Amino acid sequence: MLALVCAAAVTGKLRDRSARAEFGAMLAAVGVPGALRMPAAGALLGGEVAVAGLSLVPATARLGAVIAFALFGGLTLGVAHVVRSGSRTRCACFGRAKEVLGWRHVARNAALTAAAVAAVALPAAGPGRPADLVAATAVAAIGAIAVVLLDDVVSILRADRP
């Protein structure tokens, strides 16, 4: 799940010029100084790429989970700070900046941090049966889709119904 979420985040942020601009605007809005914006963007994207790649290889999966813990733990604290400050910064976490960062984004990042802790703490799984692999992959995909589409789901649930 962590690999899929990070792959979606990188893809969304880099998909086109508009997404890259929104990502840069989000970094500026949260207070990253101009001179540090490119290094900060590179570090965040590099962390997401590392998690996406390392988490899929059994020999490096634990390292990927440790990086995910640092990444999502930092994002949880950073987004909480932005929300507490009252900033109306839009979330460009997955490349589109429609919703203002809020406590649901803090909760989402905290849940991803907890998933990373679980991935580090739990014993590595063996090869397993093919059916188990299919089930685990399906659960991971559903979890990742829920994380990536969180703002869309909240928007649908909040919509006024006739």
Automatic annotation (TrEMBL):
Keyword Plastid: no
Major localization class: membrane
InterPro entries cross-referenced by the UniProt entry: Methylamine_util_MauE
Domain of life: Bacteria
Cellular localisation: Membrane
Domain Methylamine utilisation protein MauE: 2-121
GO biological process, one term: methylamine metabolic process
UniProt keyword terms in alphabetical order: Membrane, Transmembrane, Transmembrane helix
Bilayer disposition of the protein: Multi-pass membrane protein
Residue spans crossing the bilayer: 23-45, 65-85, 106-127, 133-157
Protein name: Methylamine utilisation protein MauE domain-containing protein
Organism expressing this protein natively: Longispora fulva
